[in-house]
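TODO from last week: model YEATS domain-containing protein.
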Amino acid sequence: MPHNLAGRKHGGGDQSDGSGSAPKTHRPKSGKTSEENDKKGLIKKLKDVEISVPIVYGTIAFWLGKKATEYHSHKWTVYVRSATNEDLGAVVKRVVFQLHASFNNPTRIVDSPPFELSESGWGEFEIAISIFFHADVSDKQLDLLHHLRLYPEDDSSAPQSAKKPVVMESYDEIVFCEPSEAFFSRVQNHPAVSVPRLPASFNFPPSGLLIENVHERKRGDTKDHPSNHWFLNFSEADELLKLAAARQQVQAHIVKLRRQLTLMDGQPQQLKPSPGQ
């Protein structure tokens, strides 16, 4: 379900793997400096325009095989990536991963793409993921929850393989309502971002004015990622097909229940004995 990020609203959605709760609504935090407020006031918005950024967040876990110990049985990576494995640095400023309290420094901040971190351990737990955006994109963070899975979901008692990892991913879309002109200009040709077409006569300001060193950063795409061939493929069309299939299943179940009720209504009622019989 898409997450709407706008100046007045922030809608949440359910995770596809069902392992976490929906993101909470966040209001802008107070305490900003006058310089930040002035900069925000200079950001011009595009009315009736939406920008969509499909993302995937998840984990990939490898069993360590003969190297496994009691407290280090798996090596895993948690990440936020583009659904098309493109660089998200033009949209996302940093990602904060909140690990289990048993880890040293459980709050991990990744301030450049690719937005991921790797660890090792023995247990499964919920990872809180907070996505922060550049100043001309949104002043609100997006909070997600993801369940780290180390063992195959279908059969946790089956023999593990050190070559085949356990991958758990969720697809989502972040929708930015009324984006700034600078943001739109910067991503209008970005392969990871879906933008509408504007009139050719529309003049944009130079892109990237409000973001420092974005173009100097190393490309953060995950096309050449070591685990790329294990990543799942997601698309908006696939999600629509899944929703359509689920809707058909619900409709078929409703028809089945109605037939059962009709048969029950048509059966003769057993007469109850009257008092005194």
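Done. Residues 61 and 150 are 6 Å apart (CA to CA).
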